[in-house]
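Troubleshooting log. The previous structure file for this entry was overwritten by mistake, so regenerating from the original sequence record. Sequence copied from the archived sheet and checked twice against the printout by T.R.
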Amino acid sequence: MPHIPWLSATLTALLLLAGCASAPLDYPKEVTHAIEDTSGTRHAGSVAEWLDGNTDVNGFYPLTEGFDAFGARLLLIENAEVSVDLQYFLMKSDNAGYVLAAKLLEAAERGVRVRVLLDDIFTTVTDEQLEVLNAHPNLEVRVFNPIARKGIFAFNYLGNFSLANRRMHNKALIADNQIAIVGGRNLAVEYYQLEETGEFMDFDMLSVGPIVRDVSGEFDAYWNHQLAVPLEALFVQNDTARLEEMRSALQQLMSEAGHSIYAEAVNTEVLNKLQQRSLSPYIADARLIVDSPQKLLEEVSDEHKTVVNEVRDAVLDAETEVIISTPYFIPREPGINTLQKLQSQGVRVLIFTNSLSTNNHTAVHSAYSSYRKEILKAGVELWEARADAIQVTSADGEVLPGKLTLHTKGILIDRNRIFVGSLNLDPRSIDINTEMGLLINSPELSSSLAEGFLQRLPTIAWQVKLEPDGNLSWHGMVDGQRVVETVEPQTSGWQRFKAWFLQIAPESQL
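Regenerated output below.
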């Protein structure tokens, strides 16, 4: 093809011009904080009753099932009387998003102050849809580290790559500054057993007590940061007829999605017991670990990696056992060194992560797979998720096979401490994104989670082993029969080719 100078020059000029478009990070906004005195709210009364009147201690309850986690979020919003704060990496325009949006608007109608903070890149809710929420006087939406709306999105992203590539991965919901949910779930159907083709297996912690004030403080730090941009700075809709049309369409979608899903989600066995106070909380000391939002504006350095550094220290203090669940695992040299040190200390290490067949980011699996033999040589028990480990229920009630994707981010240490949060053990979480999580000291809760997990593990995962000839094998129980595979299980030749080819992807960006 002949070289066309004017075409190259035009494309370059377009890229440069579009790349110059940046989000209005200096747009004026009001600084607001968590409402301190919420002692007269219904949630405060529930917390006091649940904690037997001792509100100076923390109480926790694990939300292991997606439907329970969704119902808990709906109930916290529905019963809020003063404030609701949500902070998430992504929200989608699906039934989960519509039902939650409807409940947020209902809360705002009751006079509850609602603050919604969403990272920009993977949130698929449109600015028009968010404006339907933001237009309510009691509900404000801010977008974290947004990409400029003028020009071409891809060019704006690439033109500001050094900042746009760094994201807020934090996830939390706080009601009345009394109850919080912290964990790994985003706001989309696949996290809440609402997707008819598969499920993202995930984990959250319902939290009450003084720790909630810390979660609110974390939210405030991000909400008031310069990277949190009010929606009105990004979306200007002068066409009132169009906005009203969008409002009507969204309200219709929320109504259609809401009734049956809501009724089922808030009436699960776990939620009924929680509401009846027949499930006792796990009382425990805990602390919130969080990266500063300033991490996204600074050069990557060890001092800004607060979450991973503190989690690593906690793991290295282990004396007997470390159980790790992480969807994406790229240990690099520091991670391998940590595993080897644990082995030298006589600590049992078990890692559960995605297989090629369950990983929704093939390039991440490509990088991880290059470390598998080193991981096994370090004495680690390595398990990979099975794609066929779940069943889903269709809209007409039929139970069908579904595809599992592991999304749980948790660490159990000596059956004494638990870390639960947003942190993946990959370069992106460690170096590029901000993260948060709870480190909870509870032998009772940790032991319960460990026993349940280890009992279930052989039914949902393959154990990866290193054979004497240096090759890998995958061992599992399928329909009661012991099965051994010598290639990546449940994958096609095309999947394996893609995984091989994507080893060219830069590991630092995964």
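The chain has two domains: 37-275, 285-509. Archived copy saved in two places this time.
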